[in-house]
Amino acid sequence: MNRQQMILQLQSHPREWDICIIGGGATGLGAAVDAASRGFKTILFEQYDFAKGTSSRSTKLVHGGVRYLQQGNIKLVMEALHERGILKKNAPHLVKNQSFIVPNYKWWEGPFYGIGLKVYDWMSGSLGLGPSQFLSKEETLERAPTLDAEGLKGGVLYHDGQFDDARLAINLAQTAVENDATLINYCEVKNLIKTNSKITGVHIRDTLNNKDQEIKAKAIINATGVFTDSILQMDNKKNEHIIAPSQGVHIVLDKEFLPGESAIMVPHTDDGRVLFAVPWHNKIIIGTTDTSVDNPSAEPVAMEEEINFILLQIGKYLTKIPTVTDIRSVFAGLRPLVKSSGKKTAELSRDHLITVSDSGLITITGGKWTTYRHMAEDVIDVAIEKSGLNNNKCITKTLKIHGAKETADYNAPLYYFGTDVENINALIQKDGSLGELIHPKLPYIKAEIIFAVQNEMCMTIEDALARRTRALFLDAEAAIQSAQKVAVIMANEMNKDESWIKEQVASFNELAKNYLAKT
User: Fold this and answer.
1) CATH tag for 3-54+167-242+348-387 (out of 3.40.50.2300, 3.40.50.720, 3.50.50.60, 3.20.20.380)
2) What is 63-162+244-344's CATH superfamily?
3) How much is the pLDDT for 78?
């Protein structure tokens, strides 16, 4: 997957595209895979990098949603559990079975949550990841030795999916390209082109070289997440805003705060949300919060009160109470919740919404990572119906995602590359120095940076350290210290000069400051 090749494909395609997708997050990338695998000429534009926004800032769970079960949204839970099973089959190198413990400190919590999670098991059907079970106090502490033992009655263990969101996004992009789609990052849609009040194309700008171009397409899909309203306004300034963005914050701690393989799920925090503490790349991710946001940003920033809230909530359950100085990284993401008057954002449904405007613009929003494939199937079905395309059937239920490889050891180096591990190793065989770590506190090696530039449309240091690797999300200080080294590696590979290196390092360091917890 090479950006220059994608640009050439765009320029050499004089005809009308079948489907044009605006947005390169989970929803847009899923739609590109669906459309291209059905045989439609598909193009996707992302104004930043793939999964730059919400889709790289999740809790890293592929799950039915215990909270939605509590809310009684059976339809969403059933759909999500089904999709969880499909994704586990199609991307086994990225999606793993994660055990969760719900600690019980009141006598009624065991039977109450136990029965609910048995229903969760039942709803998973043949795609379940394992049965839930009741744990004694001793069994609970054996699996989670840093839980506060005082007053602990026992626990309930259940299973869900855990994954690397940005890596899956890149693999989806590669899958779409392998099915002849054209995907371009750093390419902004500036305007919608209309003929007789109907949308017939888009005016785009390549933000890396400031070149403009117009392309025509039979169907235009708005899959821009929290920026959905900006495209709707571009279509018609009278369109009402339909998105109520909600900010969710996560903190990242060292593994010592929750050793072992089990995650913790706190079913009810002070703001009514579920709190997760999940092992991820030998760290612990803890979140999340729920804060209404008026104006969505490409780089949302965690507020001090959100960070303190997470520390307070998780501190109630651990023997070693984490403080701000223990935080290795903090990141914020925005949920594209569909507006509903009179409800808190924590209570809004995550069901997805598809609308078709008078001009023919197709908009899909809402949803969550777990259901991205089903969302994509639905929106491409709508595009077929509205645009007169051939009714080619969806094949993504059984379509393997790029890199798909059964993985026995999710602690093995480079496991998240799946079948691409061979290509990484080939680089190291040619130059042994590429097997060196980019930083002693990070698990990533130089070869991963080279591979990202050559095969994953990695254009900036931020791309490399935030999404092709997850360095910025695991240890922000270490990522900042790695920036110069990574910039030099990329510059040599991309034929960039010293001024590019300086600009990239300065830009990344400025951005990365927001991932450092203020002490």
Assistant:
1) 3.50.50.60
2) D-Amino Acid Oxidase, subunit A, domain 2 (3.30.9.10)
3) 85
Distances in Å between the alpha carbon of 390 and those of 40, 174, 201, 234, 413? 9, 24, 20, 29, 44
Residues whose CB is less than 8 angstroms from the CB of residue 282 and which lie 6 or more positions away in sequence, other chains included: 255, 411, 443
- The residue type found at 95 is V
Write out the two tokens for 373.
């494939």
Can you give the length of the chain in residues? 519
Retrieve residue 481's tokens: 């210290």
3-state secondary structure of 342: coil
Write down the residue that tokens 């799946």 correspond to.
418
pLDDT tens for 363-405 read 999 888 999 999 999 999 999 999 999 999 999 999 999 999 9
Instruction: Classify residue 495 as exposed, middle or buried by CB count within 10 Å of its CB (0-12, 13-18, 19+).
Output: exposed
User: Which tokens in the block code for residue 476?
Assistant: 């922000």
**Across residues 109-114, what is the average pLDDT?**
86
Residue 339 or residue 102, greater confidence: 102
Q: Which residue has the tokens 């989670």?
A: 144
pLDDT for the residue numbered 341: 47
SS3 content of the chain, % helix, strand, coil (to 5): 40, 25, 35
142: how many CB neighbours lie within 10 A of its CB? 12
Q: What is the pLDDT of residues 63-88, one digit of tens each?
A: 877 777 767 777 888 888 999 999 99
